Amino acid sequence: xxxxxxxxxxxxxxxxxxxxxxxxxxxxxxxxxxxxxxxxxxxxxxxxxxxxxxxxxxxxxxxxxxxxxxxxxxxxxxxxxxxxxxxxxxxxxxxxxxxxxxxxxxxxxxxxxxxxxxxxxxxxxxxxxxxxxxxxxxxxxxxxxxxxxxxxxxxxxxxxxxxxxxxxxxxxxxxxxxxxxxxxxxxxxxxxxxxxxxxxxxxxxxxxxxxxxxxxxxxxxxxxxxxxxxxxxxxxxxxxxxxxxxxxxxxxxxxxxxxxxxxxxx
Length: 266
What we know:
Helix 1 (103-118) packs antiparallel against helix 2. The strands form 2 sheets. The protein has a 5-stranded antiparallel beta sheet with strand order 1-8-3-6-9, with helices on one face. The protein has a 4-stranded antiparallel beta sheet with strand order 2-7-4-5, with no helix packed on it. It has helices at 103-118, 125-142, 152-167, 174-180, 185-196, 200-218, 223-229, 235-246, 250-261; strands at residues 6-15, 24-25, 29-34, 38-42, 45-49, 54-57, 62-66, 71-79, 96-97. It is an alpha+beta fold.
């Protein structure tokens, strides 16, 4: 997740295999976006697929196809980043990703990756292609239906998150936020937690504490003023919430930030 993949092949290719007669065993991972339907044997998995579906074939996995008609597919072969020595964060993806409502978006991204990869004369093009591939893989991990276009529930959650991002200093309550996005409180709270991985109050507090950390580290404002600017005018409550979320007191956080920054320039 923290190192760019190394792309080996990227492009659109014809494919007309039938009856699983041809076996493929790649030395790299491969990502396929199909323009036709059929059945794939991917290791021990046998999976029917339709136009717009995707598969990810891990290194060394045998794949075979039965394609009644055949056609063309987009394909990217890449080496994954080496496993971090500390066994750090890894990206986990399913082998089969069904067609989502944003197939055109995925095709557009894979086309862009292919064109960037082909620009070998431009020094920055290959790393740009790798960065675009990593972003696509991350998006597929977040939304296995490869759907960056949100549904109604997700659209409401995104609207709410953008509202909090822009106006986090205001005295929001969950009922008031639900009214703004025209959703029931319970439904919105459940969908927000499902999509964002945290409750609405936690997200609001997180945004406020991000601002607090910036002000504590980069300004001379008294802590009471920092609390007020972050939408928590009760300094005692601010201190409690800051310690709960950040793990230290505001004054200690400021002292450590200044120590790490070193002496001020003359």
